[in-house]
VTT domain-containing protein
Amino acid sequence: MNLTALAAEATSESPGGLAGWAIGLMEALGGPGAGLAIAAENIFPPLPSEVILPLAGFTASQGDMSLVGALIWTTIGSLVGAIVLYYIGAMLGRERTIAIAKRLPLVKIQDIEKTEAWFLKHGVKAVFFGRMIPIFRSFISIPAGVEKMSMPTFILFTTLGSAIWNTIFVVAGYQLGENWHVVDEYAGVFSRAVVIIVLLALVTFVTLRILKNRRLKAQGIDPAAEENDPERTQIITADDSTQQIQRYRDN
């Protein structure tokens, strides 16, 4: 069955770009093609799963593969892509990650330690729920690799989170059939909302950090010196979250 022609009929134009590429893979390879497309989406976040997954459901609705097959292959693809990013994080390592983060403007060692401590405490939940949040879907695998999260744990919760996300979009595409593209329209609103929230959080962080640095300078204190103050370092070292990091390293 010519999926390209059916998709063109549904959208009133021949699908090109990502949609055309994904359709081509699924026409040629069936379920494995859907898995390959999703694996690529995980490694290259600009490729939106909100387009590929409904297309996989649409393909299943046309009989080119089963619905169960579409769910299994897309989840396998999600897992493969996540594992690739996990190992990228593992190869990058903690020391390199800290060295890179320290070069970022307005980022302090305390920020890195707090983020690391948070992930060590909530990493499992972050991996599970992160698989269902646009943008974070891919990137959440990198800190898991940096912190050397147990591979069985990572695989389990990545698979569960991916399966839930994939099922929602694949089944929606399957039920809508030739109107699969409607899913992308609604998902796009959600994705844009996430982007706006992230940008607002970033702007808030930068603004507060700039104001704090100005306040310190007005008091005659060098922000960089304040960060490396021995008393402040001692307080941070005594913090439960930092002790958790040290215990984690020792084990």
Confidence is low (pLDDT under 50) at residues 8-15, 228-251. The two ends are 56 Å apart (CA to CA).
